Amino acid sequence: MGVFRQAQELEAPIKTAVLIESLPWLKRFHGEIIVVKFGGNAMIDDELKRAFAEDMAYLHFAGVTPVVVHGGGPQISARLGELGIASEFAGGYRVTTAEVMPVVKEVLTGVVSVELAELIDAHGDLSAVLSGESDGLFTAERRGAIVDGVSVDIGFVGDVVAVNPAPVLEAIDKKRIPVISSIAPDAAGQLHNVNADSAAASLAIALGAAKLVVLTDVAGLYADWPNRDSLISVIDTAELASLLPTLESGMIPKMAACLDAVEGGVAKAAIIDGRVPHGILLEVFTPEGMGTEVIPA
User: Which of 43, 35, 38, 120 is nearest to 76 (CA)?
Assistant: First the structure.
């Protein structure tokens, strides 16, 4: 018993230091909106999914307002495989034919959103499942892709060109955590598959969010990849804009989303390693954060 009490006494200053370190950030983000793009391995690892849901509940009960935007690439590919439909990509985008688009909707709205909402609701009746179709939340415009310098048709793939934040704000007013899938109709009502990073950035701007956090499968942005000693902790928009064309193709949409968000008025954006359990809490509530933070120039 004496050994146990001694261990408690030794741990107490460490625990209290961690808690008090979060005070300035609790004050900074209290009542503010933080948009989180959920993706990468965190979407397919059960323990990481549970940790993410805990983080969203923690933010909620700490007085911060989290809003979750997600894609679901691995789950879509798996479902297409089950149906005997080949997954095809061009220029970094999923070719989304008339046959593929219903599967994208089914997986994003009926599987990924529902599972994530159930994990969040393990901590209370907290979630509100929405999609880009919900009351005109997103409007998309069809886009193509460039492959070897040539523009190619990639089907029903679009960019978010307009955001109506009303359904999200209504959910927030009801003390809910919005969970939003990245599909969106165009002006004529045709549904499109939209990039979740870009959708999250557009929504963060429309909501006047205090921060955008993008989960991915790397520790952050590297100045000289694959040199792991070149991790950039903080970068401003001017520096990022000049660096963007040199990045690996997989990083471009994520860093472009951070750039767009900050240039659009979001105070800060960050890309963090979604493979680290509770990394969002480290990013939001500690001075050093984690990953790479993008700030105005």
Answer: 43
